[in-house]
Structures are given as C-alpha cells and as structure tokens.
Amino acid sequence: MTQAPPGRPIRPWWEPGVIYQVYPRSYQDSNGDGVGDLPGIASRLDHLEWLGVDAVWLSPIFRSPMRDFGYDISDYRDIDPLFGTLADLDRLVAAAHERGLRLILDFVPNHTSSDHPWFVESRSSRDNPKRNWYVWRDPAPDGGPPNNWRSAFGDMSAWQLDERTGQYYLHVFLPEQVDLDWTNPEVRAAMLDVMRFWFERGIDGFRIDVINLLSKDPELRDEEPNPDWRPGMPPRARWLWNRMSDGPAMPEYLAKVRAVADEFGDRVLIGETYMPLERLVRYYGGEHPGIHLPFNFQLLLLPWDAETIGGWVATYEAALPANGWPNWVLGNHDQPRVASRIGEAQARVAAMLLLTLRGTPTLYAGDEIGMTNGDIPADRIVDVGGRDPERTPMQWEPGRGAGFTTGTPWLPIGRDADRVNVTVERDDPRSILSLHRRLLELRRAEPALSVGDWEPLPTVTGVLVYSRRLDDRRLLVALNLTPDRCDAPLPAGRWRTVIATGLDRDADAWEDTVTLRGDEGLVLEPV
Ligand code: NOJ
Question: If you take atom 10 of ligand 1, which residue's CA is the nearest one?
C-alpha cells in the first residue's frame, strides 16, 4: 500500500499509478539478433523513470515456439532463450524495484502451445492421464467438428481433428494454441501454481490473457449468428461469442486467481476483457472479489468524437460497482496505433484524455513518441492476425536500426523513425514525448487528476469538458476533438492554463469561455 496523506484513504499503488506496456520483441535488442530481450529492457529503465510511469507490463517472455509470438507457451516457468534467462528476469525485477518501478507479467491461462509437454501427453492416447486437461470431443455424426465455434484467427473452425486418436481438440486461437479445460481441478491447480511461481520471484502483478474465455458453455452449444455482421467485418464476428466466453464458472475462477494474488498482498490483477459493459463490470467480483482491473478498451474501439467518447466515460463511471476502480487503454499490441487511428494532432488530445481521466491508464510503448503503424511489405508479414504494424520496433534514435538493434530487426523500422524517436523528441520541449512527460508529472503532483471525482460539464459540439476534484482542489480539462477552433463555456470564476497539448501556452487566463484551437486540449486551474 502507498502511504496516504493525512485524511486520505490508503490506496493500493496501482490506483493512482500509470502502467506502461512493453512488447518485449520490439523494445530493445541487446545482442544484435534483431529481437528485443530482457537485458535490453533493463537498459532502458532510465527512459521509463524519466518518463514517469509506475509499472511496466511485459507481454509474454516465457518459453514458446512463437507461433503467436509468446501467447503460445510451452513452459510457463522459464524464460524463452530469445528474451534471456530466469537470472535476467530476476535482475530486471530488482533493477525496476530499485527505481520504484513495478513489474507486471502476462499470464496466459486459457491455452498452451501444442508443444507444451501437457498437450504432447494429452494427444498421445485417449486414456492418457492428461487427456482431460484439454477439451477433446468426438466428431459430429457427419465427421465434422463438434460444434460451429470459429477460431479468432483466419476463417477456420475452432476445432482440429487429431487423426491418431480420432477426436477433435478445441483451439479458440491457432491450432497450435490449445484450450485448456479449466473445469478440470488439476488444470486449475497447475495454473494457479504458475502464478505463485512468479509472485514468489517478486513480480507485482499479472495481465491475464483472454480471461473471459476460461469458462465456456458447459454443453458446448453452437454460437448464434451475429445479426450485426456485415461483409468486410472479420470472419470471427459472424457469430456472437456467448458460448465460448464468459461461462457460468467465471465468478469461481475469478475468485480463485484473486485469492492467489491476495496470498502475496499488494499485487495487481488486470484482465483482458473485450466484453460488453454489463458483463465486464462483473469481473470486479460479486460475492467474492474478482480482478482489480478488467481492461476498459473502449477508447481503442469507439469512433473518435466528443459526444461518443464523453458519453462512454459517463456510462462507464456510472456502471462501475462500488469498489470497482476505473481504467483506460489507448493502445496495445493488438490494435492499430493511436496516432494512425486518429491522426498525430488528435493523438496529443488523446494523451491528455488518457492521463486526466479517473482511474489507471495503460500507455502502450511507442505511443509516448507518437509512433504510427508500420508499413509491412508482403514478404515481411509475420503475424497471422495482421498486427505487425503496431508491433514495429521502438524508435530510440535516428539512423539505421533506430537504436533498437545493431542487427536486422524482426519487423521493419518505421519510415518516420528519423523524426519520431526518443532522442530527437527529448530535446524538443514541444514534442509529444515532452507532452507525455509533463502530463505524467502533473498527474503525480495533482492527485485530483488521478483519483479525484470526475464530472462532465456542459459544453459545445466537438469539445469535451470535465472537472476533476479532490477535496477543495478542482481542475478542468477541455479537449477539442475537432480540427476547428471552438469556444466552450467554463464554470464561473477565472481559470488559468496549467498545460496545453501544444506545450505552447503559458498561464493563459479565461473567464466564462475558453477558446480552443483545433486539435487542442487544456488543463485549467482556478486563478
Ligand atoms: C490476446 C493477446 O493480446 C493477443 O496478442 C493474442 O493473440 C491472443 N490473446 C491469444 O493469446
């Protein structure tokens, strides 16, 4: 627990904290093989400390044949040699902790690699003791898959026939990512022990991959067609994902993972939860506590206009259960880069939004410098899910390799790397990197911005205005989500600019109305 100032509630560190997601393959290569690694990340902790984030979440670094770049694990208790060793991880944890940074790992409990020894055993015969660690079913009467479930990748069944034993196994992702059967208590015990293994090594929490898939419909009934599906939408969206996901045992499994975290105290559990709001809020727990932060992905998914975004913030705030702490995500390794989705100018406004909403923000590495989607020539495509553009290497400096590698990078370096990089932007007091740093500094200095109450204020079309209030400190945030100049009304009193997205206004003062330039956001304080 963090020490609370007098009169304030004691809060866990992650409530006011800011999480920074590192995609380890793409952060820093230390040995010239073109792939990022743990010693590389350790060598960049200076950047994270300077930037001012609180915790680093690493996408999976465990042993893996890398068919889904680490989300297909063949040994949950070892580091893949590509990334380093267990000793490297221990050193990284210690070095992060020395700087007051927390380290969060990625837990992938829904599926193992088909190379995992458990699955190798499971598929070896129908009566192998590990057979029921995975979801095996007989073919349908016509010899086809047991039901209509589709894989999240490509346009294929989620079932794969194993010729040797004559049954199908379930894989919601690649055929090489095999769904574990969480109804089996041995599976649950084994996976909960994996959590303990890493907690004992000192990590501060887990981001839990597709946590909502752990419980499935016990009868494995067919999915129903999605009435909103239109040609052009991904094939996986043709069906509702009601039966593969969020099944009846979810509350029990959430309570179990939470109980393990609680054995260690002060650790955070974040869940990957692409789900409608009424389901998502249940992941905070009911009768028993669930996870701390079911990811709120709507800033990644909603159309970027003030009415939609403002409406969502209000809806989400209102739907949170009493002890449910909010959280916000603007980018990750599965979604197009924010600067490409909404443009470089609006990416600054988005950064101000992310870092001034109530709750825990997650910042995706590279977004702090405004990285855009990479151009991936056809012969360099490596991801089955089309997600290479948002995974290109971190751009540290101008020049070949962008400071990421001395070798050949596993994905091409962004074309804009000579302009969009840490070194150049650190020296530019108005860069988007400087903006992120200043916002993070302000957020730390002004608890009203992290933990204060959020209240929407009357405004004009295209502009979001809200207040953040803690005790008698009140700040306003005014964000213009359009490229046009706009006048927005302000509450009574005189207000002074604390920070502008362009970092180019010093203490401008306002009364009744604020005039925002196109693509501009301001934080204001009472004069
Ligand atoms: C979600 C992860 O974020 C994604 O990268 C991965 O492909 C799937 N889960 C499967 O593990």
Answer: 71
